Amino acid sequence: MHKRSKLHLAAGATALIAALFGELGTASAGDVDPMNFSAVDRGRYLSILSDCASCHTVRQKNQPFAGGRPIETPFGSIVAPNITPDLETGIGSWTDDQFDNAVRKGVGRNGERLYPAMPFNAYTKMSREDVLAIRAYLNTVTAVYNPVVANTLPFPFNIRTSMRVWDGLYFKEGEYVADPSKSAEWNRGAFLVDGPAHCGACHTPKSFLGGDKTAQYLQGSPLQGWSAPNITNDARTGLGGWSVEEVAAYLKTGHNRVTAATGPMAEAVDLSTSKMTDDDVKAIATYLKSLPGDEKPQTAMAASAAEMTAGGAIYRDQCSACHGFDGKGVDRLFPSVANSSMARADDPTSVIRIVLRGARSVATDKEPTAPGMPSYGGQLKDDQVANVLTYIRNSWGNASPAVSSGEVGRLRASLAKRSD
Amino acid sequence: MARILPKKDVVIIGLGWTGSVMANELTDEGLDVIAIERGPWRDAPTDFPPSQMQDELRYRIRHELFLRPDQLTFTLRNKLDQQALPMRDWGAFMPPNGVGGGGVHWNGEMWRFLPSDFVLKTHLTQRYGADFLPGDMTIQDWGITYDELEPYYDRFEYLCGTSGTAGNLRGQIMEGGNPFEGPRSRDYPTKAQPQPFSHTLFAKAARELGYKPFPQPSGNLSTAYTNPHGLRMGPCTYCGFCEWFGCSNYSKASPQTTILPVLVRKDNFTARDNSEVVKINTDRSGKHATGVTFVDSSGEAWEQPADLVILSAFSMFNAQLMLHSGIGQPYDPKTGEGRVGRNFTHQTISSVNGFFDKSKFNFNPFIGSGSIGMCIDEFNGDNFDHGPLGFVGGGYVGQVQTGARPIESALTPPGTPKWGAAWKTAIKDNYLSTVKPGTGVHGSFYAYRDIYLDLDPLYKDRFGRPLMRMTIDIKDNEAKQNRYLTDKFAEIIKAMGATSLAKTYRTAPYDATTYQTTHLNGGVIMGADPKTSAVNRYLQSWDVSNLFVLGASAFPQNAGYNPTLTVGALAYWAADAIRNQYLKKPGPLVDA
């Protein structure tokens, strides 16, 4: 009886949402909109948009949503809890209000404050109906008994009451409010980016307390030994050089003319963006492309500089076989380092890491090749890595600050402690 | 006692080229497929990264990618009255091991056989009379024609992105291609690779001698290509590390670059590596396979039941597993009866190195690619009149510059001391001005009554099973063929302007110590007559109808070409027969 009434509620919510977003239906005949499905299917799609599995499922373990994955934060690790319907260790005995409070308000079952590793500050943009649809979907997954101790932070961060202060500083509760001056597609994109897809969790720089630096919204941030790139429309370091279709292709297939998803973004593509509808990835692309970059002017280092000459020689010997003498690579196989905003990023962490450690791009149904880049950490010394990156960052029209041998050395030392 | 695993629809033994093709086709059909591979998993970018792979010592000299003879080897003898001895190091051929099989470390030659090759016995008998063939020669027709196989040749070529120049497009002879090839239904997927200097010089000399040189069809691509599975390949960079090595530049067609990334995404596909199948199990009638028994890396035995068994190991291991499983009557050279082990063949290879004036010629021999080359086909198959020559068979000859890796490319002209200052000087003087064809003369190897495979009566493997015994020799026919082709080839090298030549003929006895090719064929041959073949025209066992045996083991004899394209085409041909005939009505597809 209890279950049935919930389904009725969700069905009503579906109709409401359908009415709200009905005008977004640009889909041609045959292209379905999962947001118009019944609660469980809508919830499944919303869980993809929200990428719940990324944190709540341990990969390769075949226990979806059973939790147990440590989420790395600058303050220590937080282990993602079990959100299967298990009565004892999951969320099976939670009320809908408790679930909604956790997802959208950052308040746990017993009134305790959640850490923002759970992106409730983004999920708050969703409606209660959205969140209960996710709940309806989670109720259908296999219940797994898996007790998880979530709070593994060191003192003083392990004191949850400190989160009251954080919430006061950084958390703005409230559903997404559409901007009537913008298109329905733009609004859908803004809702997805700031809401379920929680792009800012990685791409917006954080204060020393881990709150968003809103002035630098989506302009890139260090993350788990990588640098999440700028995803505003900045021409040099952001998406300025990509068309809306190229951004959408990147999200949907993990690959486009310029680059390929790797590192933490490979996982986001695999679990979330590649499973979004074509309309939704295009909406995200449309919104991101509308965000102005800061367009900081840069001057390229002279080709005659010693770093450039040395770096060019290394590039010819080690890199050009795949990436080409012109730096353009091979379409959707070898990234174009000449046109790569990641290569030009102000924070070169990701490119240094790729040279030192190598990287594997994501495989998707549309782009199954998943080419990889070998590690050159054993072959190139710190100054050689710095020079070749300085060369790439200042050739073919690129202009970005030189990479120093010290930066490479520091990252090499910190990567040595990482298992990923 | 083996523990029994849950039953699958299909078990595939060996995940090389043919196993990968078949796994992909049958998973597309919706079947639940498991592939069991003796060697390790191999993944292009992580196992052969271009930052480390160009290591001649590790891969070429120390055989990193191959089976270890300690793990499994063969015994060999030349003649029936000899005692066969075990091979303790690889030489004449290199048995592959691991996912991708020989497709990992091959050179990438993509030759089609001639239409007459498939009806060889009929063709030669009609043209020259039955008496023209040596009395102990046991060549046979294949039971399939070129025209039947053409669509499957085409599929494998497009799978691999093959670079080449068509010579016969739907019957029309095309300028610049091989005028002797059978008609192809469409052009190559990608244009031929650009040729280095020694190749263009070879082509010029050949043309002046009246031949029609053409680029060797290559599985190393001239340009970027996306195959029908959506897998992307890149242009070859001519690094010169192809054969013996894996390519992680996505330039060489291999299961890793053309099939596996799609296959591993399928929920109805499972692979088990480092597990060796030791037996195909049959029911009490012996006419129905029930699955396989394999041993994992801990030495534990497991039984994998399945409705359909695909034997797609390397050719000699196919024959070996058939014999170990007691499927098909073993071949007896004395009576000429029996199905399994007959018509075992190899290839007849030789070469001519040309030494040129270093002040006039610089070939930059390190610019290499596995199957880049300029070849002529005037002396292949029956493209020339054998009547006055007293032998049958032939091969292509060509300049194929696969690279000049330092250890193996230390060549000196005849008469140079083998060591010391004069040797060092000669190495230096000749490195850039020597033409060292990767293959040179690539001749056929026809079948004989007393060249065959059987189980060794004395030597056993680590499981206590008899080793496979090879009885193989170079017969007069092949020696004559080779002498003729090598001399023709040497004329062209000479005409290029060589000041001296180092010519080596292939002669008896068969020598297991120097590399020829890994093209070992036969043993489980296909044919129309169940008395003289082990599998029917669809590669289905005559004895056990739910067993198909793929690979060059099916060749009744070997043509003067590299086998992979024909092996791949036959795999698609067999897959088509399974999908469209066998699954609808399981049982023999040809009445015995």
Q: How is this structure best summarized?
A:
By secondary structure, chain A is mainly α. Chain A has helices spanning 2-21, 39-49, 52-56, 96-105, 120-123, 128-138, 162-170, 184-194, 200-203, 244-253, 263-271, 278-289, 306-323, 349-357, 382-393, 405-415; strands spanning 70-73, 76-79, 221-223, 226-228, 359-360, 372-373. In chain A, the strands form 3 sheets. Chain A has a two-stranded antiparallel ribbon with strand order 1-2. A two-stranded antiparallel ribbon of chain A has the order 3-4. A two-stranded antiparallel ribbon of chain A has the order 5-6.
Structural topology:
The complex is a heterodimer of chains A (420) and B (592).
Chain A: H1 2-21, H2 39-49, H3 52-56, E1 70-73, E2 76-79, H4 96-105, H5 120-123, H6 128-138, H7 162-170, H8 184-194, H9 200-203, E3 221-223, E4 226-228, H10 244-253, H11 263-271, H12 278-289, H13 306-323, H14 349-357, E5 359-360, E6 372-373, H15 382-393, H16 405-415
Antiparallel strand pairs in A: 1-2, 3-4, 5-6
Helix pairs in contact in A: 1-6, 2-6, 4-6, 8-12, 10-12, 13-15, 14-16, 15-16
Chain B: E1 3-4, E2 8-13, H1 17-28, E3 33-36, H2 44-47, H3 56-61, E4 74-77, E5 85-86, H4 102-105, H5 120-128, H6 146-160, E6 168-169, E7 172-173, H7 197-208, E8 214-215, E9 225-226, E10 232-233, H8 255-258, H9 260-263, E11 269-272, E12 276-282, E13 289-295, E14 301-311, H10 315-324, E15 342-345, E16 348-355, E17 374-376, E18 395-399, H11 420-430, E19 434-435, E20 440-443, E21 452-460, E22 466-471, H12 476-495, E23 500-504, E24 521-523, E25 547-549, H13 564-582
Parallel strand pairs in B: 1-14, 2-3, 2-14, 3-11, 4-22, 14-25
Antiparallel strand pairs in B: 4-5, 6-7, 8-17, 9-10, 12-13, 13-14, 15-24, 16-19, 16-20, 16-23, 17-18, 18-20, 21-22
